[in-house]
Specification:
The chain is an alpha+beta fold. 24% of the residues lie in helices and 36% in strands. Strands 2-5-1-6 form a four-stranded antiparallel sheet.
């Protein structure tokens, strides 16, 4: 099985405790539906900084990451199919999918 990195971008934050519970339940259901394929369920992330080749540092970017996850799938098509059920999509966000290689 190959490993795939999910990088979550965007999405809205729930405004009430009830909305927060609903969102967290949706994430739990989605991750639970993948079972043992979930290597690392991930976490939300803060504002990113980028170190350029000249050593300069910039904050933010055009498409800020809002979280990550790591899953196993037989191929890219399966990883993409699993990503299509991600709750961040319902919040207006997106999922970037990339194969992660062991070194």
């Amino acid at each position: 099985m190959a490993k795939y990195l999910y990088v979550y971008h965007g999405g809205t934050n729930p405004e009430t405790e009830a909305e927060q519970k609903e969102v967290m339940d949706a994430w739990g259901t989605w991750l639970g539906s993948m079972g043992a394929a979930v290597i690392d369920g991930g976490n939300p992330v803060g504002i990113s900084s980028t170190v350029q080749s000249d050593g300069s540092v910039s904050t933010g970017g055009e498409n800020l990451a809002s979280g990550y996850g790591l899953i196993e799938a037989s191929d890219l098509d399966e990883a993409l199919a699993k990503a299509k059920a991600c709750p961040i999509l319902a919040a207006g966000g997106s999922v970037e999918v990339a194969e992660a290689f062991d070194m």
